[in-house]
Each structure stands twice: as C-alpha cells, then as structure tokens.
Specification:
The complex is a heterodimer of chains A (about 230) and B (about 140). Chain A is of the alpha/beta class. Chain A is built from ten helices and seven strands. Chain A has one domain: Spore Coat Polysaccharide Biosynthesis Protein SpsA, Chain A. The mean pLDDT of chain A is about 85. In chain B, helix 2 crosses helix 3. The longest helix of chain B has about 40 residues. The chains are: A alpha/beta (about 230), B mainly alpha (about 140).
C-alpha cells in the first residue's frame, strides 16, 4: 500500500546518457545524476577510451555499442533499455557536462503539471553561459529551419536535455543515427500531435564541451542527412 | 572495329547482368537492359546517334551519349546511397541487439563478477563479448 503510494508519487525516471569518448567527464556527470536519485543508463557508443569502465562503476546500467553508430542510435538503444526496465519517464542528458542534474526535476514537474508527453529544455528561456557567437548563430539558423519544417513553436531545437513519457517514447522513430536526430525527434513530435512544452534550463559551455560539440560545419552534414531522409521516404 | 568489338562485349555483360538481376529488382533490370541494347545499337550505327541528337536539339551524337551517361550514373549513385542507408539500418539494429543482450546493470553486476571468477575457463565466445569487465580483453577485441 505504502509502496504503491510512493510509486504513484514518483514514477520511475530513467536518465539516458549517450557517451562517446567521454571518460574525462562521464564519472562526475553520472555521479551528479545518481545523487539526485535517478536511474542512469549510460550508452557507450563504441568509445575507444575508458568510458565504459568509468561508467560501469557509477551508472545504474551500462549498454555498449560494439561499434560507433552515432548519438541518435545511442539514444534509441538507451530508450529501449530503459523501457525494458519499466521506465515511465525518460530523460536524455548529454555526457559532456553541459547540462545540470537539477534541471531534470523541473522537466519532470512540467510533464506532470501540463499533462504533456514531451518537456524540452530551452537555453533561450533559461541561461547559457559562455556561448560563443558562432554557436549562437548556428543554433539560431537550426532553430529557424526546424520551426519552418515542423511547425512546432519552440525557442531551442537542438538542446540535448529533454524528458518524455513512455507514450512519448513510442512515437520517436530514430532513423537518423547521426546528429540529425535532434530535428527528427521534433518532426516525430509534430506528427504525433502529442502535447509538448518547453522548460528553461541552463547550459554551461566549457572548453571541453565546445571541443566535443558540433561545429558550424556540421550544419551542412545535418542538412544533408535530413535531405537524404526526404528522398528516402 | 576493335573498339566496337570490346564495347559490344562489355555491353553483352550488361545484358546478362540485367537478366540475372531481373528477379531481385525488375525496374533496375529493365533500365539496364534498355541501356545495354541502346548502347549496342549506337556502337554499330554511330550515325544514328547523331540523327537522334540533332532531332532533340543536341549537337553531336557523342554529346547525347555523354549526357545520358551522366544521368544514368546519378541514378546509380542514388540507388547505391539508398542501399547503403538501408544496410546501415540493419547494422544499427544488429549492434543494438548485441548491446542490449550484453547490458550490464549495477544490481546484477556483483553477481556477474562473482560468476566470472567462478568460471576460470572462459570460452572464446565470452571473450568476443563487447561488454567485458576485464580491461585486457576489451583492448584485444577493440584493437
């Protein structure tokens, strides 16, 4: 009876942390999440460094791709695993330390309060520290493009921090293995017609996350990926 | 005459290929069959290609052939790209299945580790697992 009440209050939240050669940051990122009492599944995307050994000692669970497939594929693997473990709320969280574990509680609260299936982090509503100008322009262009193609009303389309329900997870297709999955998720949300909401979050830009993140040149690759998808259909 | 013989031989190979390909994808087979036949025709009747070219407003027969060739290669490229994509989807599904089958969870971890120590002799199949707790075997499988 007591357990049931607890369960009703706190649905199982699983945080999915895709990591590719993140041995330097993964331990502290996962430790922060564990401190906030979340289940954390680290998806090692074929790293060649010690990522999986470091992650195995701190995460709730570790799933490892035998070869590098891309962040989109890693997210999908993590989601499949979390669903198999009975997750009711799923959170995607970058492993490079740019997100804050405290923001997850706000995303989860937004899901419940607004009866939404997706809560998307937005650094425009929230804060971004030390964001370089080139990155700002790149994100603005990406946001314009995605808003124009999906018709969703969003302020930040390429934020790695999102929360969604089990039902929300079922409409995500993840056919884009590489970075174009961020736009693909939004396309899927738009097609599903499920309710979504944006939540202000803080993104910390460090020299490490900037070096790992996408450069402006990657925009071309993302556009190519999306174009290929249109052809494929 | 020598060039004509060699080209005819190559185009005959294309015809054989189209015949073999018919069961897998009739559209590709039909296209390559038509292209092969047209090629054979123009090799032995070069003047006709010039007539066709003039009829549709291109200067020379050789130009017509070149334009057609560019179009055909682009279609082949696109087809290859789509094939690669679908193949990559298969690889992704495969890698995901392997990853999920070897998922390591902290609660089961202790049990798994003790099992590992209990079974002193490990089979080669165990060593090939992508998720090994032993650093040395991971390195040997990755490198």
């Amino acid at each position: 009876m007591y357990l049931e009440a607890l369960y009703m209050q706190k649905p199982p939240v699983w945080v999915i942390c895709p990591a590719f050669n993140e041995a330097a940051t993964i331990a502290s990122v996962v430790a922060d999440l564990r401190r906030c009492r979340y289940n954390v599944v680290v998806v090692d995307d074929g790293s060649t460094d010690a990522t999986r050994h470091v992650a195995a000692s701190v995460a709730t669970a570790l799933v490892a791709h035998p070869v590098n497939l891309g962040q989109g594929a890693a997210l999908k693997t993590g989601i499949d695993y979390a669903l198999s473990q009975g997750a009711e709320i799923l959170v995607t969280f970058d492993a490079d330390g740019q997100h804050r574990a405290e923001d997850i509680a706000r995303l989860v609260r937004a899901l419940r309060q607004e009866q939404a299936d997706f809560a998307l982090g937005s650094r425009r509503l929230g804060q971004s520290r030390n964001m370089p100008f080139a990155r700002r322009v790149f994100l603005f262009a990406a946001t314009l493009f995605t808003v124009a193609t999906t018709g969703l009303c969003l302020t930040d389309t390429h934020n790695g921090l999102r929360a969604f329900t089990r039902r929300g997870a079922s409409v995500l297709s993840f056919r884009q293995n590489r970075m174009a999955h961020a736009s693909e998720i939004l396309t899927d949300i738009a097609h599903s017609g499920l309710r979504y909401t944006e939540v202000p979050v803080t993104v910390d830009y460090t020299s490490y996350s900037l070096a790992k993140g996408q450069g402006t040149a990657d925009l071309v690759m993302i556009l190519l990926d999306l174009f290929a998808r249109k052809l494929h259909r | 005459m020598i060039a004509q013989a060699i080209l005819s031989l190559l185009l005959c190979c294309v015809l054989i290929y189209s015949w073999a390909e018919y069961r897998r994808s009739p559209a590709v087979a039909l296209l390559s069959f038509i292209a092969g036949l047209a090629g054979l025709y123009f090799i032995w009747m070069p003047s006709h290609s010039t007539q066709v070219a003039e009829f549709i407003g291109i200067g020379r027969g050789a130009d017509l052939i070149m334009y057609l060739w560019v179009c055909i290669s682009l279609i082949v490229l696109l087809n290859l790209h789509l094939k690669l994509r679908s193949q990559h989807e298969v690889i992704t599904a495969l890698a995901r299945a392997i990853a999920l089958a070897n998922a390591y969870s902290a609660t089961e971890g202790a049990r798994l580790r003790s099992n590992e120590h209990a079974t002193a002799k490990r089979t080669p199949a165990d060593k090939a697992l992508p998720l090994s707790r032993d650093a040395s075997t991971v390195d040997s499988t990755l490198v």
